[in-house]
Structure formats: structure tokens, C-alpha cells
Amino acid sequence: MDKMPAWADAVLVPLISILLAAILSALVILAIGESPVAAFKLMVDGALMRSSGWGYTLYYATNFIFTGLAVSVAFHARLFNIGGEGQAMLGGLGVALVCLFIPWPHWSIALLAASVAAAVMGAAWALIPAYLQAQRGSHIVITTIMFNFIAYSLLNYLLVNQLKPRGSMEPASATFPAGTHLPTFQEMFSTAESAWFRGAPANVAFFLALLACIFVWLLIWRTRLGYEIRALGFSETAATYAGIRPVRITIIAMLISGALAGLMAVNTTQGEAERLLLNSTEGAGFIGIAVALMGRNHPIGVFLAAVLFGFLYQGGAELALWTSIPRELITVIQALVILFTGALDNMVRMPLERIFLALRRKEG
Amino acid sequence: MDFLTVIQVLDSTVRSATPLLLACLAGLYSERSGIFDIGLEGKMLAAAFFAAAIAAFTGSAWLGLGAGIGASVFLALIHGVASINFRGNQLISGVAINFLASGVTILVAQHWFKQGGRTPSLEGAARFEPITLPFANELRDVPFIGPIYYELISGHPILVYIALLAVPATWWVLFRTRFGLRLRAVGEAPEAVDTAGVSVIRLRYSAVLICGLLCGIAGAYLATGLQANFTKEMTANRGFIALAALIFAKWRPWYALYACLLFGFLFAIETRFQNIQMFGFILPVQFVQALPYILTVVILAGFVGKAIPPRAGGEPYVKER
Prior knowledge:
The complex is a heterodimer.
Chain A: H1 6-31, H2 36-48, H3 51-76, H4 84-101, H5 107-136, H6 140-163, H7 185-189, H8 205-222, H9 224-234, H10 236-241, H11 246-273, H12 284-294, H13 299-322, H14 329-343, H15 345-363
Helix pairs in contact in A: 1-14, 1-15, 2-3, 2-13, 3-8, 3-11, 3-12, 3-13, 4-5, 4-6, 4-11, 4-12, 5-6, 5-11, 8-9, 8-11, 8-13, 9-11, 12-13, 12-14, 14-15
Chain B: H1 3-32, H2 40-58, H3 61-85, H4 90-113, H5 136-139, H6 145-153, H7 158-176, H8 178-188, H9 190-195, H10 200-226, H11 238-248, H12 253-272, E1 276-278, E2 281-283, H13 285-301
Antiparallel strand pairs in B: 1-2
Helix pairs in contact in B: 1-6, 1-7, 1-10, 1-11, 1-12, 2-3, 2-4, 2-10, 2-11, 3-4, 3-10, 7-8, 7-12, 8-10, 11-12, 11-13, 12-13
């Protein structure tokens, strides 16, 4: 018999964890001499009360959906892919190569090609850590961390020595040709009389992220491969006994995870910057960890958590603009969310389990 | 390359290796006891900020060191509570600690000093100044030995010598004391230690606290010894390089020293020379930057000498009932 009903496990535990993180964040804001209520109001105003605010919120959310899904697919196989950052960087390289050197007649074909390139490059960057984990037993967390740094150096080298346009000092590629421009929300939803999402970077890649959510849900819960991934994550011995090959599943799960992380680059590199930048990932690979933890590794949860973090990011930018609270407040909130929903999960779970057991005993 | 350049590069090697070495030994205690720690970076960063801030307020580098150690130990305790008491995922806890330090240092720095996340420059007693070892000035002009002793061995802040002494001390504690034997045992087979009537929780907490202490010294050295103030993200991934060095050293103290000196040497090369010409090829500076990570992956892959972590590493210990 379960100690807790399923709804408590799926909803109550994360809610309490987030509440604890929110209370501590409010205390942090108080401690630096600002008002948490005013700060929260400013964030809501800036991120949710205007359509352009939503345009930024959903742009950030798109990144976090991809990286959050990437982390969750790996989590289902009990692999901790901390390398989303590096995989997304390589995804960006794939996008840049496709967009820079092939003249595309229409953005839809360019989007398709760039997505394939981003996914392939992201997956390729996850392949070596996956192989080393599956075949040689090297810890995937350490190897993916190392691969983040190697990716950064590689990208730095390529941008400075190969892709940078002549005469430019900035480590960035040339601007992509106009044929690769993805429609932004402003272009898609604005009418002649009213401009929606003015100047916001949200673009058609958001819908790609929604498709990725559906894909992951189908993959994990509706396919044989997804079953094998979950079985491996649940118990490696049982999975092996059932004829599942751990090496194969480990590598496949990591390839899918890397591909999802790589896809993030479509949004940032093709959708927003329209050229390859050195820091185009902006830490989204790490936020994916928080998003996956908070979303309980379920696509719906990941989507909601990604929108919440998108709100925090846009709201944080507004705070930095209008108050003396630095943007780094978001990093603190993110750290507290990871701490409470991830590492201190049992702190919330254990007392709750005790309460539910006591309640049940009363009934019975 | 002339003799003096070699000495200068080696001198810079020692300076860059020191924070790596302290953080690496910190990780060594923690991981030998079965607690993975990818939060070395965050602990160092927090220590660097609080050391610089308190040194700026009080004008004393030693009080700064105390504050740095305090901050680092506080984060270590969070890691301990999460991974020992609540059996949480140690890697996730480490990630959280890194973010926490990265955010809090800037928030507090901005609140206290209003200089865009920096602390004011430290002068005089607020910094750990280089100390001159005995006879360094007298021996300075002796050929060959003079420059080596004066430039390379003498003239570092005291924390550098503390870091170097920590290596034999760690070796002695781990391999020659009862505490060390138990510490190594708890990382390999906690159930055996528990059966022998020794508290797993207490052993792991002591390891986590020692880890906090050493990270604290490492951070304080960065902000008050190597540099003269705290700047945003000043640890610059040194915590992860220390982690790489720890794997490279296969969790052994003397090898940790060699690995940190090697990685420190790469730092020194990278800052002094940009692209290096070698056998007609140009070695890009980015390759040198990535080399510690590449070497670690190669070692982890087990093709050149296998690195085997402590067996119970990362696993929370649950007492049998």
C-alpha cells in the first residue's frame, strides 16, 4: 500500500516545496531592504500584464521546455544529464551551419533543417558521455559537466577563428540570411489596428516546444522504448532480467535528451539572435534541472514549470530595470527551487507521509 | 624561453594551483566519506565574497578568512542536511548550492557596497600579503638557487603554504589515523562501519565540515590573497577543475597535489602565452583551456589508468531495520 495518495505525491509535495522556496525568497528580498510584495507586483506587471511581457515570458519558457524535457527524459532512465548547456551550444552550432551556408527559400524548410541539425548536434554531444557511462562506467554527471566546458572552448575557438566575420571584434557569427527568419509572435498575431507582442522575441519555435512536450509524453508512456527507459530507471537488475539491454537504453535515452537540449538553439539562435553567439544558452541548460524537478518529469509539469521560470526571468529583468534588486535574485530563487523540490524533497515528504498514515489509521 | 621566464611561469603555476589544491582536498574528504560534492564551486565563491567583504569592513584579512570559512561551512551544512539526514540527491543539492552562492554573493554585494556586485579594493592588512621566507633576501643573488628560492619558493601569501602543508596532513589523517581509516571505510562500505558501532552520520558530517573549511580557505585566498577584491563569478569554474583534478588524482592526496600543479601550470601557460606553436602546428588557447576537462574525460573513460570512485559515493545510507 502506498503511504500517500497519488494526488498528494504529484501536487501537494511540489506545491509545499515551492511555497517554502517562495517564503525564503521573500525573506531574501526583505533582507536586502526591499519589499517582497512590491517586487512581486512589479514582476507580474512586467511579465504578465502586457502582451509584450508575455512574449518575453513565452520566449524564455520555450528554452526551458526544451532543456526541462531533456533533463526529464534522462531522469526517467535514472541518468542525471547536467550537460544540457553544452548540448544546446552544439545545437546552436548546428543551426548556425545550416542557416549560414545553405540559401533557404522559405523559413518553414529552414526551420525543419535547422531543427534536425540542432537535434543531431545536441545528440552527438551527448553520445560520448552516454557511451562512457553505459560501457565504461564513468559517472555521467562528471563527464557531462566536463563536456559543457569542452563545448564552450570549442565554440569559442570556432567563433573566434572560423565563423567570425572579417573585421569584427565580437565572438559571434555573421547574421543569418533573411530566408531563415522565423516569424515572431508579433508578425503572427498582430492585426492592422492592434499590435500584439510588440518587440518580443517569442517566435514559432514555441510551437515546436509544444510538439516536443507531446512527443515526450507519447515516447515515455505510450511506446515500448519509453517503457524500457522507465524500467531501466526503476531497477536496472529487473530491466536486465526482463531482457532490456541497459547499454542500449542508456545510450538511446541520452541521445534523445541531448537532441531535446540541442533543439533549444532553434529558439535562441535562429529565432531570436539570428546569428550564433558565444553565450546564447544563458544558463538555460541548468534551469532545465529545476524545471524537470519541479515538473516531476512529466511534460505537463515541465510545461507549467517552464512558464513559471519564464515569468521569473522576465519579471527579474523588469526588477533589475526599475528597482535596485539585481537580476541575480532569479538565480537565488532558482537555487531555492532546486534545493527544496530536489535535494530536500524528503523534508516535505516524510512529515506528509506520517500525516497521511495517521489519517488512514483514524479511518480504519 | 630563458631561465627567468621558466621561474615566472612556475611561480604563477603555484599561485593558480593553490585554490585548486585546497578545493580538491576538500572534495577528497567529502567524496572519500561517500558524499559527492559538485558544490565546491559555490562554497568557494561564497567564501571569496564574505572574506573580501568582512576584510573590507574590518581591515583584517584574518577576520575575512574566518567569515569566508563560516559562509562555506554554512553551505556545507546545507549539503550535509540534504544528503545525510534527508537522503536527498547529492548532485542536485550541489547544483543548488552553486546557484545559491552565485546569486546571493551578487545580491549581498550590491546591497552592501553598490559597486555592481564587486567589493572595494583591499589594501594592507586586509589582504594576505606575500611573506618573505628566511634568508630569501640574502640568497637572492646566488646564481640558479637564488631565483628559485626568492621567486618561486618564497614570496607567497601564507595561505599558499597552508595549502601545501594540507597535502601531507591529509595523507597522514587519511592513512595513519583511526579517523581516516573510518572515513575511508564509510565511503566504501557504510554498513560495515555501522555494524562496528561507529556512527555513519557523525563521520560523514565531519567530512562535510572539513570540506567546508578547506573550500573556505580556498575562497578567501582567491579574494584576499591572489586578488584584492571580490568580483562576480570570480571562482571561474575552479571548483569544477578541482573536481576534475580529484578524479585525475584518483582520490589520493599526493596525486591531488600533482594534478593541481599540472592544471595550475596549464592556467599559467594560458595566461602568459596565447596560441602556442608546437611542431609546426598552432595550438589554440581554447584547446589549452579545455585540456583539464579533456584529460579528465580520458582518465574517466578508463583507457589510461582507471579512476574508481569510492564505492558508496552518492548513496544515502539507510540503516537496516
